[in-house]
Amino acid sequence: MLGINYKPCNEDFWQGRTDSEENFLAFRWHQWIKPINLNKDDLSPFTGKLGFAFIGFCCDEGIRRNKGRTGAAKGPETIREEMANLPCCFTDEVKLFDAGNILVENISLEEGQDLLSKAINKILSLNLFPIVLGGGHEVAFGNYLGVLSHLKTINSKPNIGIINFDAHLDIRPYTEGMGSSGTMFRQISDICKKEDLNYSYLCMGVQKHSNTLELFKTADKLGANYVFAKNITYGDNWIVFESLDDFMKAQDYIYVTVCSDVFSSAFAPGVSASQSLGLDPEIVVRFIKYILRSNKVISFDIAEVSPRFDQGHVTANLAAVVIFSVIDTIAKIYGLGL
């Protein structure tokens, strides 16, 4: 049981246009989404060809601890609203489920991340692909822990690679038990060291002006890999693709996480730390699709959508389109795309 801080799907968020109530080719996501309550003990594993489960992480405590601009706790609501009208560009054998939200209210960040970990573990055990809606980027720690917990039932030492699209390395120092939205990948490194696990971390879109020299030194010490945003924007992308290939070949599983501040503020103004020289979303989506085609990706999240700063829901809409691209790409991999 996930307790009172888990709230099952609120179907009110799934409202939109209806062109037909019978012709699936005219369906939008709000017509195809099904609620799933992770608190139920009698849930049976999904036996269809391909299923996705959305779960929101309504939290910005990590952002507050990181002295950023709070507001991302409301992100999952607005992302759902933007996803509602997306078209079903897949066959009816692809199923979409909404697993509700983890609410980090009147509990600690660490308790919230533990709840998310349990939820991710359960979603994976149901044979569904988790897509987490943030929430601050502290969502990454809970998502990773859930993936790790699930994979340990298969292999005591799973080989998991992390690909993070982010302007920040997020490997800041932290006090034990008090992480933030800027510490997750250092916390994961510490867990890997403690449990003798492989630590494989690649950060795409790093901004030199957003990280201290000590953080780059720490990244090198930890064996983390990173690609600067300027090298993606102005460099030879084939070199970046080769770097991705080298990284992905060494992994058995890949967890992909996107911090919305990786994007230029022209496309993503509603974030905690906006980036005037961030990446063009088209470039990021191209890399995400390439990573997905490795067929190793086990979980995905997009974080730091903050409605408080998001005039016209521009950033939430971008997050929805990124998620659309994820589902569209995986559906095509399974031969279920249209």
Q: What can be said about this structure in brief?
A:
The chain has a single domain, classed as Ureohydrolase domain (Arginase, Chain A). Helix content is 35%, strand content 18%.
What features would you highlight for this structure?
alpha/beta, Arginase, Chain A, ten-stranded mixed beta sheet, hydrolase, histidine metabolism
Task: Tell me the structural class.
Answer: alpha/beta
Per CATH, what is the topology? Arginase, Chain A
Shape estimate: globular
Q: How widely separated are the two ends? A: 38 Å
Unreliably modeled segments: none
| Integer average pLDDT | 97
Q: What is the percentage of strand-forming residues?
A: 15-25%
CATH 2nd-level architecture: 3-Layer(aba) Sandwich
Describe the structure.
- The chain is α/β, with parallel strands linked by helices.
- It has one domain (6-333): Ureohydrolase domain (Arginase, Chain A), CATH 3.40.800.10.
- The protein has helices spanning 29-32, 61-65, 75-83, 109-125, 139-151, 184-194, 213-222, 229-233, 237-249, 281-292, 314-333, and strands spanning 6-7, 33-35, 50-58, 94-103, 129-134, 160-165, 200-206, 225-228, 253-259, 297-303.
- Strands 1, 2, 3, 4, 5, 6, 7, 8, 9 and 10 form a ten-stranded mixed sheet that branches.
- Strand 6, helix 6 (184-194) and strand 7 form a beta-alpha-beta unit.
- It is globular, with a radius of gyration of 19 Å.
- The termini are far apart.
- The model has no long low-confidence stretch (mean pLDDT 97).
- Pfam families: Arginase.
- This is Formimidoylglutamase.
- Its cofactor is Mn(2+).
- Keywords: Histidine metabolism, Hydrolase, Manganese, Metal-binding.
- Catalyzes the conversion of N-formimidoyl-L-glutamate to L-glutamate and formamide.
